Amino acid sequence: MQCFFDPKSVAIVGASRDPMRGGHRILKNVKTGFQGGIYPVNPTCNEIDGLRCYPSVLDIPEPVDLAIIYVPARLVSSVVRECAQRGVPGAIIESAGFAETGAAGKARQDELKQIATETGIRLWGPNCMGLVDAVRRHVFSFVVDGIWDAGCLTGDVSLVVQSGFLSAGFVVDLMTNGGMGISKACSIGNKVDVDECDVLEWLLDDPHTKAISMYLESIADGRRLLALCRRARKPIVVLKGGKSAKGAEAAMSHTASLAGHGGVVSGALAQVGVVEAHDFAQMMDICQTLARFPDPPKTNRRRVAVLTGSGGAGIVAADFIDEVGLELAELSEATRRELARVYPEWMPVANPVDLFPAIDANGPDAYRFAFEAVCADPDVDAVLLHLAALRPQHNGFSALVDTIRRAGKPVIGWVIGRRDALEQIRRQAVEERVPIFRELYRATECLAAVLNHRPRPSGGDTDFRSNQGPEVPAEVHARLGDARGALDEHRSKRILAATGIPVVAERLVASSAEAEAVAAELGFPVVMKGLSPGKIHKTELGLVRLGIASQRAAADQFRSLMEAMNGTGSVLVQRQVRAELELIVGMIRDPQFGPCVMLGLGGVLAEVLAETVFAVAPLTHSDAMQLIARLRAQQLLDGFRRAPAVNREALAQILVRVGRLGCACPSVREIDINPVLVSNGEPVAVDASIIVDG
Amino acid sequence: MQCFFDPKSVAIVGASRDPMRGGHRILKNVKTGFQGGIYPVNPTCNEIDGLRCYPSVLDIPEPVDLAIIYVPARLVSSVVRECAQRGVPGAIIESAGFAETGAAGKARQDELKQIATETGIRLWGPNCMGLVDAVRRHVFSFVVDGIWDAGCLTGDVSLVVQSGFLSAGFVVDLMTNGGMGISKACSIGNKVDVDECDVLEWLLDDPHTKAISMYLESIADGRRLLALCRRARKPIVVLKGGKSAKGAEAAMSHTASLAGHGGVVSGALAQVGVVEAHDFAQMMDICQTLARFPDPPKTNRRRVAVLTGSGGAGIVAADFIDEVGLELAELSEATRRELARVYPEWMPVANPVDLFPAIDANGPDAYRFAFEAVCADPDVDAVLLHLAALRPQHNGFSALVDTIRRAGKPVIGWVIGRRDALEQIRRQAVEERVPIFRELYRATECLAAVLNHRPRPSGGDTDFRSNQGPEVPAEVHARLGDARGALDEHRSKRILAATGIPVVAERLVASSAEAEAVAAELGFPVVMKGLSPGKIHKTELGLVRLGIASQRAAADQFRSLMEAMNGTGSVLVQRQVRAELELIVGMIRDPQFGPCVMLGLGGVLAEVLAETVFAVAPLTHSDAMQLIARLRAQQLLDGFRRAPAVNREALAQILVRVGRLGCACPSVREIDINPVLVSNGEPVAVDASIIVDG
Questions:
Q1: Which of A103, A225, B396, B445 is the most exposed place for a label (fewest CB within 10 A)?
Q2: Strand pairing class (B236-240; B211-216)
Q3: Residues of chain A by 3-state class (helix, strand, coil), percent to 5
């Protein structure tokens, strides 16, 4: 990837003299900042803008590290072949007209793919805006012009964007609206060869990048992405387009790529500590904030002090702090004593720290004084400042800068006020790298991202690069045998049991006498079910009989079930489990991430709450514990209504093993354990269905 | 209120020569725009800034319509008395140092209250920033200076803000950042006399106000507020601070006012068609958008077409449209044919309408062409435009202005791009009154506010000004008698039944023989309960016996219950209801709104979903139906898992009658019907507790 990010020389194929053409803008952009050799290529010119122009890359006498290609789509493959022949290690193809344009374009893109495979040339794009490196002032793009004049700030946030046009507008917006400095903006287009993982891998080691934002419509290689994110020591924020059913429809018609199931993507990102964003600007706001505070906080707490000049804004801030899962700090005794020195006598010191009366009594210095006290408070993990800048000459921020520098804890600001004063504050805040926001909620959610940032688990981690987990016992493979389709409940549970998953006590019975005996042995009441080949919906077919309380009833039900199945199926007798909670556990194969484990609430709650959480298999024990912790309805697990708490260790084991089964047995397409009943805190698989390919 | 909004002459008490003092700024601000008589009052000066200065309002020779008072708190009451004596109809008191500052301040404020009551002078404030009327250029405030120079835009959104300092920053921000024109900004401070209702009432009739935003920390008179909102023919957006438990804590320490229970406030606002906002800037964005489209949409549909230059942004927009409850429009055949004319052949026409390939093939005009087609489509109710302004000379917006003017449906824009181009677009958008936003989600939620805006129900509405609903039958009063405290289950249900609420069949029994007979009469199984005076938690005390299936068992349970109660209580036999759904219905008295009806999910769901919705009593039938519709878990009511759908009419009747009971019987403090069981779709009160004051 070095050829893209650190080329010594660049050829611009399709360079043009016409200022209205992209090929002209690329050349102009490259010339503005790039310090190495620049070789325009265009068979119709001898010279452009003072530079010698070559008919083909083959004619360039010096070595070429990078070709930027902007010629009509039908000519791209021959240009790329010439590049490969010339020994150019990489090319950014900015032309459109490939897989995004139907069958003919798709064929053109496939040809590029093949050239890359055959020759080893790395291809970035096509259908993209290329690369902007604000630190090195490399603008390898046809679209952005004049960004330096427009006040582009360099910074330490890098951006990967899949969508072409969007990235252009977005990058130009970021670069010219002065709110945030950026390091690299990478528009990767159709991803024929170079994909988000290649770029991410480079950025993770890039000393000029402290945090990374990615807007993705499809995920090229889910497991590699997860592996990279898990080893990342930089914050990563991802916005995944196409998550709702309707969004996914749009994704299908826009790109050839498969939009991932929203829950799977969210689960996978959460599993590796990636922050999921919701909107474009919000993604950048969070990323910028994390770039300022890239290390996980020293404490595990999330106690926020709010300094405000307005009790009203303090109230709303307290609401938001609650909403995003942070806590309002309880100020220490020492801090309270300090604050009391500037507070008027009648006013109790509290958090949010409402400073209007203190400022009224003691002048504007009271704000700085209070801010220092709060920064020194060991019971405060972060500070949310409210600044109302009413007059340009007293913007209120300058006085705090020294304290912010020394604070040793995150300080984030919400600012409102006069346009001119705000502009002053904005400039100072950029210089001092203090994240400030114009909306209070945004400030609060960015603060939450900082305080929720946790060190990634290290040691014994899943290597997502393969989906090989530890093997399952040989018995599992033996029991799977050459089965195809949906296995029946009993066989499915035998396989789960062989994997080490607790299943309900049950036996197949062949006669009414055996039914009587087994029922007695299991203990009443029992459940009896008719298992008929290919009949999955037992309940709907009347093949499930609950609450059988005597041997005679067991015998009767045996006969009744056999009759209902016309004598063809078999009958299962199982202990009836009295449960305090129903769960669902499953395994699916996601096209982007491979085998994934699902955990959800069962029964009525499943349908009302529709709450399921996903993680990518194989799961470590810690993955499984975190997956359980991601269910919103935690109170159900912790001894709800005086029930015993769910044994989370046991549940985690089930999740780990279901994932292992998915990884070890590629023919298993789907596993559905529904329900997993929790009885006296212990989860047990009561009904299950394993679906095998074929 | 006319004296505040349309005075002919103004006295400024506390006017000052010192430019650093508020009293100077008020005078300067008034002089800048106010056309009537201006009379500075200050005993230490003869003249300020070319105007004759009077020692007291009593010395002003001309009539004074309005006094603006900015003197130390201890002097305010005597100034107000002089104003009253002089016949000044109203005063804005901008001084601080009243109820917000503890006991002494509270006493000063109480004195003002009394003067207002005695003399009839209307008092606005204290502890406020007063009034800015951008249309008339009245700045009756000490804080805002130079707003006209800073680019303040006049518009048709008016704002009521309770919090003092916040409103200052907020108003200055709005006025100087040029995003939005405003009409009036009213900072009402401690509300000693003039409150949000007085101001709202004026604004509802103000021809310069098309939509109203209110930020409130407390609600002075909940029922009057609701009455005003219900009769409003203008959109109203409210942000209520202090809704979470923590927010409410902050509210208690900041103001003397009681922060309303979040659910009650949200329910009350929803009941009268007020839009509830979440954050400051968001409130103004929604309000500005509603001011542009103040009339409820002509259709009941919410079908949105998205025009984008980026498939990626289209995907995210589709996600958001789904999230806020709008739908993506299905484009009509005619529109599809039109769009196909500019689309490249390989690309199917769909919504979101991704125009990048069309622009690529047919130039930038394709965007306008597509926009016209979509505006003409009868199956499209609103259009969400994406604009990426990459070059100042082609900002993309100008070309659309004509079509937007003629569209006849809401058009809202999301814009990103170059700073200079954005500024051009912003100016044009303000001029053309097209709401544009820098964040896609914000654009989508504002569009949702427009499309969700419904005509307020008219006719047969609740008159919130009194809480007198229709009377309840005399039997209810008779049964309440002079009871005090928590009435037992049976008595509570007899009162509910007398109100016309269906209750479970049940009888008190005095002997085991009677228990046998009644049980047989009700039909098995029955439930038997021991009612012991003062013992509310029957289940915990072991006084509830379920599933009694025979006469003998009924007799046994009678004896057992009597024994458990040491022979003191009575025994209730009731039919055991087999229910498909558990609900809770209740009535509470909210300090701000009076009697409120609550509806929630019961059983396990109650604790997991914690879902309860409120409405203020008395409820009309339509209020009750809307209350039911506000439960998020609607699928539970509509024949969940093949159960019969809940009879919403019957449930609405229960809600109406509970509310009526609350209104008609002021001594009833609380009603708790838990559960209301739904059996075969019919709701019936199974357990209940009425709590009576005393």
A1: A103
A2: parallel
A3: 40, 25, 40
Contact residues, chain A, for B164 at CB < 8 Å: 310, 356
Residues 6+ apart with CB under 8 A from A552: A516
User: Are A390 and B172 an interchain contact pair (Cβ–Cβ within 8 Å)?
Assistant: yes
Inter-chain CB proximity B242 and A319 less than 8 Å:
yes
User: Per the CB < 8 Å rule, is B241 touching A163?
Assistant: no
Q: pTM of the prediction? A: 0.89
Q: Which residues of chain B lie closer than 8 angstroms to A163, CB-CB?
A: 310-313
**B386 to chain A: nearest residue by CA?**
A166
* Structural domains of chain B ordered from first start: 2-209 (3.40.50.720), 303-452 (3.40.50.261), 505-575 (3.30.1490.20), 581-692 (3.30.470.20)
Q: Does B641 touch chain A (CB under 8 A)?
A: yes
As a whole number of angstroms, the distance between CA A105 and CA A98 comes to 4
**What DSSP state is assigned to residue B408?**
-
Say if CB A143 and CB A25 are below 8 A apart: yes
Residue type (1 letter), A436? I
Nearest residue on chain A to B353, alpha-carbon basis: A250
Segment B9-16 shows an average pLDDT of 96
- pLDDT on residue A348: 84
Q: Look up tokens 């938001």; give the residue.
A: A320
Is residue B529 over pLDDT 90? yes
A544-548 β-sheet, strand order = A506-509, A570-575, A526-531, A544-548
Averaged confidence pLDDT in chain B: 88
**Which of B401-426 are b and which e, b meaning 16 or more Cβ less than 10 Å from the residue's Cβ?**
eebbeebebbbbbbbbbbbbbbebbb
pLDDT surpasses 70 at B255: no
What pLDDT, in 10s, does the model give residues B474-513? 999 999 988 888 899 999 999 999 999 999 999 999 999 9
Ramachandran quadrant class, B96 (left: phi over 0; alpha: psi -120 to 50; beta: rest): beta
Mutate to test the interface with B, among A21, A161, A166 (most CBs of B within 10 A): A166
β-strands B327-328, B353-354 pairing: unpaired
For B304, the token pair is 């949105």
> How many angstroms from the chain centroid is the CA of residue B94?
27
User: Is 70 exceeded by the pLDDT of residue B387?
Assistant: yes
DSSP collapsed to 3 states, B160-184: EECCHHHHHHHHHHHHHCCCCCEEE
Q: Which of residues 313-352 of B touch A (CB under 8 A)?
A: 313-316, 318-323, 328, 344-348, 350, 352
Q: For chain A, say whether B312 makes contact (Cβ under 8 Å).
A: yes
Contact status of B440 with chain A (Cβ, < 8 Å): yes
Q: What is the mean pLDDT of residues A298-326?
A: 89
Give A422's contacts in chain B (Cβ within 8 Å). Answer: 173, 177
Q: Is A176 on the interface with B (CB under 8 A)?
A: yes
Between A196-205, A477-486, A495-504, B512-521, the lowest mean confidence (pLDDT) is in A477-486
B201 φ/ψ sector (left φ>0, alpha ψ -120 to 50, else beta): alpha
Using a CB–CB cutoff of 8 Å, tell me whether B166 touches chain A: yes
B117-167: per-residue pLDDT in tens?
A: 999 999 998 988 899 998 999 999 887 666 666 667 788 999 998 876 666
Contact map slice: A 110-149 vs B, CB within 8 A: 143-145
- Which chain A residue lies closest to B417 (C-alpha atoms)? A173
Are A15 and A40 contacting, i.e. CB atoms less than 8 angstroms apart? yes
Let me know: does A673 contact A586? Beta carbons within 8 Å: yes
Q: What's the complex ipTM?
A: 0.87
